[in-house]
Amino acid sequence: MKSQCFDVAKGGNFESNIKCYVDSSDKKSSSQILNQPFKKYQQVRFPRFLLSEYLHGFWFKFCLENSSNRPQDYVLTMGEVYSQEYHINSSQSGKYTVLLSQDKRLTQNAYYFDHKYLKINIKPKEKLEILVKVKDKTGQQFLLQPKIKTEAQEHTERLKNLYEERFALAQNLMLKSILAFVMIFVSMQYLFTRYKFLLYYALYLLGMLLFHLYGFSFSSYYETPFTVIPFFKFELRQNFYVIITQIFYMLFLREFLGVYEKGSNLQKAIFKYQHYLFLILLILEILCSVFLQRLDFELIISLVTQFIVVSISIYLLITMFTSKHLKAPLAIRLASLVLFVGVIIGFLSATFEWVKTTSPLLQYYPNYFFNFCVLAEVFLYSLAIGQLYFKTVSEKSFLNQKIALSELNMLRSQINPHFLFNSLNSIKSLVISERKHEAASFLTEFSALIRNILQKSREQFLNLEEELSFTESYLKIEKKRFEDGFEYEINVQESLLEKLVPAFILQPFVENSIKHGFHELSEKGKINIEISEKEEHIHVQITDNGIGRSQSARIKLSENGHQSFGTQLILDRLKILNDIYGWKIAFEIIDLEKGTRVVLTIPFFD
Length: 606
What we know:
The chain contains 18 helices and 17 strands. It is α+β, with helices and mostly antiparallel strands. Strand 6 (83-90) and strand 7 form a beta hairpin. Helix 7 (238-257) packs antiparallel against helix 9 (265-291), helix 12 (368-414) runs antiparallel to helix 18 and helix 14 (436-456) packs antiparallel against helix 15 (464-481).
């Protein structure tokens, strides 16, 4: 290597000693590179942002000499780039030794205090011929800052940089702490409530946290998963976390705003298909970064992602402020607006260099505009989630009051005076007729039914076996009271007997069949109850051969007789249960050619 050596003992202009060669193929070995035409470092024009140049190898060569009579310890760097590969040929050893610096973990480095520096020891009268290969990443500002200094000088400069950048470091740590705290808090809320939008919001915060961690993973002050795990440091790039964040952000808004329940067809389609679009971008991002390692393609994907994110953000803002279907809370609208403004200003300020983008300590300098908007957005979203949570709690409290009233009405309807009067009259008739055994049997079954109603009246659910036992007790009493004027049959799939159903859900429909369906019926009445499993639901059919709803209604109007509220009460109760627990208990009454059929579809609750 024929170049004038830089004497570390005397000092001077170190950069004037450096020469550069660009290997556009990035395939030449170090021995081949030595024979290439190097230019002076100052005469080589480096790209501001690497595009396809990341495929090139940037080679530098220089000579260091120690003219003093004592050994010298120095730290050497070519700047805050992705990797530096040092080939050192000592005049005393006569051979090259390869040392790696920046692509190692901080704790594995020869110079522990900063991963961008390589520690070298130059013996008295020794010359070191040094060949350095530098690699950087596409889309990132390419800054070469060759330096050689003593450890004391590096410590002094480090303290100076730390003082000057204390606000940037503090702000960065504060932002990460807030994101981590809110993420943990929202995750705990999800475990208690099981609301999907809380899960998606927690994952969105995790994506945002990883996005910021990646941005500072190349600072010597941080040990992050991206520096600890070499795979993460290179292959998974910042756009990966942008896409992940956007996916969970859209899922959060979809669930929070209830797009699939309240949105228009266009809104449903956009929220549905944008996920497929981002999943395609995610697959392409991983393919180009991890497997193909074509970072020029990855940069194109990043630019496409930015365009799509901005376009969707504009659509969301317009939708939230103008849509008649999706009435977003004010906090959500403001949060989306603030985040959008932060992304735009952050991008423009970095592109046009209105703010710092890098520094000696922080290769990704925090963008204050973007970080402030992220904090404001997290605050507003958290406020909106809190408002929704308290609103939900209030609604549940109100619904619980309604269900208590419904249960009270239910109890009253079960033990209605008409039923009690008729049953006691039947017992009285049996006693007067001296049919003592029949009267005792009737009284036993009647008292057992009343006791069962009183014991279970506070319970929200019964297993199907208990529910059928209660219903059959009621049928037996009514059958005796009507002197075998009807017959009944119950068929149930045994595997369903332990499944839970709303308490006393069958009796009102059976009561309607007896009181109204069999009224003035010319033949013997029949009630058939069929219970089976259908697509993880309990499928109930209650069929009678009565006179039907139309004729029964005409008779009631003409006689102005007793009106039963049992069916309406059970329907009100089912609606409240559906509102509270999100269940969908389907109910249908079918008019048959002869009789009526009630169909209930009850989801599995246990």
